[in-house]
Amino acid sequence: MLRVEGLFTGYPNEQGEIVRAAQDVTFTVPEGKLFTLLGPSGCGKTTTLRSIAGLERPRLGEIAVKERVVYSSGRASFVQPNRRGFGMVFQSYAIWPHMNVFQNAAFPLEVGDKKYSRQQIRDKVMRVLTAGSSSSRSPIARRPSSRAAAAAPRARAGL
Ligand SMILES: Nc1ncnc2c1ncn2[C@@H]1O[C@H](COP(=O)(O)OP(=O)(O)OP(=O)(O)O)[C@@H](O)[C@H]1O
Ligand SMILES: [Mg+2]
């Protein structure tokens, strides 16, 4: 179960004032369920996802996964992104262009909280690389389709 409660996020503008992004966001997602955030451009969908992953520090609220609180303004707690165990496909893919597909997907497993052997990492990555997608050894090209082909396995390899 993922629980997001009373999340408020904002970004400072050039004058240092806080521009509001996602405001008072509350929802829960039961384990194993798909959940969609739907709304107009700029309403705060990406900001909410980034807050759950730990890539943004919200101003207020609480986020918990399986009863483990990963962010709480009230308790002043913030778990670093690499200690949260999430996968994420970024809106702009954000894959590393100097790594091939395999290296991109393997990287979170190399730096994450859980320690894996080289063979375990290999098995996990190869499991999520779909047949017919770009070769695991191919360098990342600039084409969006090949960046997407690396982004999804990277998000799923650790699951
Ligand atoms: N790094 C940033 N610095 C300043 N403002 C930002 C930043 N990222 C997002 N914002 C602002 O926060 C608000 C929410 O943006 P967000 O990207 O979460 O929207 P979204 O719902 O994902 O939109 P889209 O459907 O276009 O992807 C917008 O007003 C946006 O301009
Ligand atoms: Mg977005």
CATH topology of the largest domain: Rossmann fold
* H-E order: EEEEHEEEHHH
- Level-2 CATH architecture of the largest domain: 3-Layer(aba) Sandwich
Number of helices: 4
Helix share of residues?
Answer: 25-40%
Mean pLDDT: 88
Give me the secondary-structure category: alpha+beta
Instruction: Provide the gyration radius in Å.
Output: 17 Å
How many domains, as an integer? 2
Assembly state: single chain
Describe the sheet with the most strands: 5 strands, antiparallel
Structure description:
By secondary structure, the protein is of the alpha+beta class. It has 2 domains: 2-83, 3-Layer(aba) Sandwich (Rossmann fold), CATH 3.40.50; 101-156, no CATH class. The chain has helices at residues 45-53, 101-111, 118-128, 144-156, and strands spanning 2-8, 10-12, 18-20, 25-29, 60-65, 68-72, 77-78. The strands form 2 sheets. The protein has a 5-stranded antiparallel β-sheet with strand order 4-1-5-6-7, with no helix packed on it. Helix 2 (101-111) crosses helix 3 and helix 2 packs parallel to helix 4 (144-156). The chain is globular. The model has no long low-confidence stretch (mean pLDDT 88). It binds adenosine-5'-triphosphate and magnesium ion.
